[in-house]
Design brief:
This protein has 376 residues and is of the alpha+beta class. It has two domains: 4-231, Rossmann fold (3-Layer(aba) Sandwich); 237-365, RNA polymerase II/Efflux pump adaptor protein, barrel-sandwich hybrid domain (OB fold (Dihydrolipoamide Acetyltransferase, E2P)), CATH 2.40.50. It is 22% helix and 33% strand. It has eight helices and 20 strands. The strands form four sheets. It has a six-stranded mixed β-sheet with strand order 6-7-8-3-9-10, with helices on both faces. It has a five-stranded antiparallel β-sheet with strand order 13-12-11-14-20. Strand 9 (203-208) and strand 10 (211-216) form a beta hairpin. The longest helix has 18 residues, at 166-183. The two termini are 33 Å apart. It binds adenosine-5'-triphosphate and magnesium ion (MG). Magnesium ion binds next to helix 1. The site of adenosine-5'-triphosphate (ATP) has 11 residues, from helix 1.
């Protein structure tokens, strides 16, 4: 059992508070990823859990025990950093054995633990090598091995893959996913990379300026972002956001008026809001299609076409001057300067209040991540 609970955790450096009362309830064996813009507090939060920084106020519980005052070595955690800093003059084996020997483990124990970690990480053929004779990905695996041999209850990773090239990142990402399944340990993982976050996480914490914006499953965050920050932070290219005005609405659907562009329907509940209220319409590029004039919801002029092979990103300037990015199929033929129509399904729309808080979605798209009904 290794739950990690943060209760109103705050951190100040001098007089500046950088973590503003964070509450998180991380379950045993959960894989939780922290994402957020640079400087939002991801590393600081991880370092507070590790005990590398003191908590200014609030409680940190690991496995049900308050550990605020425990030194890092007594918390049952192991941390892996972006810069893996292996001892250059020691073999892979000795790098992994170092912490255990220092902790007074017997040679037999050291050998057992190191061999087991090497097996898990497929480092067995490399145990006698020096770090300089390893690839970046192999060195990062040794750094993870040093964490594994300590048999921690909780693994903390701070951007462990960011020094690796694209192909190695993908490979090592898969290894970390496998490691999580094999180790049955709780893992907290910081990354800038959305794909890492979406593919590795059981749940994602989106941080912004020292606050938690949302804590939920990857699909929850994608389909039901609680606010515009989360909606636009996850997804690439980012969600299109247009200023609009609320029109007529029912419980299930609202008309939204866009300046100079026309009206569209969105499957969202705007209960209690009066027509004429300013709102924002959110549409993900992958949910828009190029369409001919009579089926289109909007039209505009193509500004730029980015060809990605399997799809094109078509940047369209609508009459009001806003830019809408459409992810079109790879066989779509459009040219810069051309007039195009854009179609979108009301069920794919997101609606935000003027303060950025999401309005509840009512269409089937919002149910995508709901638990599957029991099969009989
Ligand atoms: N030791 C420190 N003293 C003063 N301020 C600090 C200290 N460590 C971090 N900060 C500040 O706390 C804030 C959060 O920093 P942190 O390193 O946690 O961000 P981050 O989300 O990990 O960013 P990045 O994605 O760039 O790694 C920043 O404003 C940073 O300048
Ligand atoms: Mg950081």
């Amino acid at each position: 059992m290794a739950t990690v609970v943060l209760d109103e955790v705050r951190k100040s450096f001098g007089s500046v508070e950088t973590i503003h009362g964070v509450n998180l309830d991380i379950q045993d064996r959960e894989f939780v990823v922290f994402v957020g813009p640079s400087g939002c507090g991801k590393s600081t939060l991880l370092r507070l859990v590790a005990g590398l920084e003191d908590i200014t106020s609030g409680d940190l519980m690991i496995d049900g025990n308050r550990v605020n005052a425990l030194p890092p070595a007594k918390r049952g955690i192991a941390m892996v950093f972006q810069s893996y800093a292996l001892y250059p003059h020691m073999s892979v084996y000795e790098n992994m054995a170092f912490g255990l020997r220092r902790g007074g483990a017997s040679n037999a124990d050291v050998e057992k633990q190191v061999k087991e970690a090497a097996r898990i990480l497929e480092l067995e053929p490399l145990l006698d090598r020096l770090p300089k004779n390893l690839s970046g990905g192999q060195r990062q695996r040794v750094a993870i091995g040093r964490a594994i041999v300590r048999d921690p209850k909780v693994f903390l990773f701070d951007e462990p893959l960011s020094n690796l090239d694209a192909a190695l990142r993908v490979q090592t990402r898969l290894e970390i996913a496998k490691l999580h399944r094999r180790m049955d340990a709780t893992m907290i993982y910081v990354t800038h990379d959305q794909v890492e976050a979406m593919t590795l996480a059981d749940r994602i914490v989106v941080l912004n300026a020292g606050n938690v914006e949302q804590f939920g499953t990857p699909l929850d965050l994608y389909h039901r972002p609680e606010n515009q920050f989360v909606a636009t932070f996850l997804g690439s290219p980012t969600m299109n956001i247009l200023d609009a005005t609320l029109g007529e609405a029912t419980d299930q659907s609202a008309r939204v008026m866009l300046p100079d562009t026309g009206d569209v329907s969105v499957a969202a509940s705007v209960q209690g809001m009066t027509p004429g209220t300013p709102v924002r319409l959110g549409m993900r590029p992958e949910h828009l299609r190029l369409a001919d004039a009579n089926t289109a919801d909007f039209s505009g002029t193509v500004d730029v076409v980015e060809e990605l092979g399997e799809s094109h990103l078509v940047h369209v300037i609508v009459p009001h001057g806003d830019r809408i990015v459409v992810r079109a199929t790879g066989d779509a033929r459009v040219k810069e300067g051309e007039n195009v129509g854009i179609a979108f399904d009301p069920n794919d729309g997101h609606l935000f209040r003027a303060d950025g808080v999401s309005l509840p979605r009512t269409g089937p798209a919002s149910e995508t991540d709901a638990p599957l009904p029991t099969q009989h």
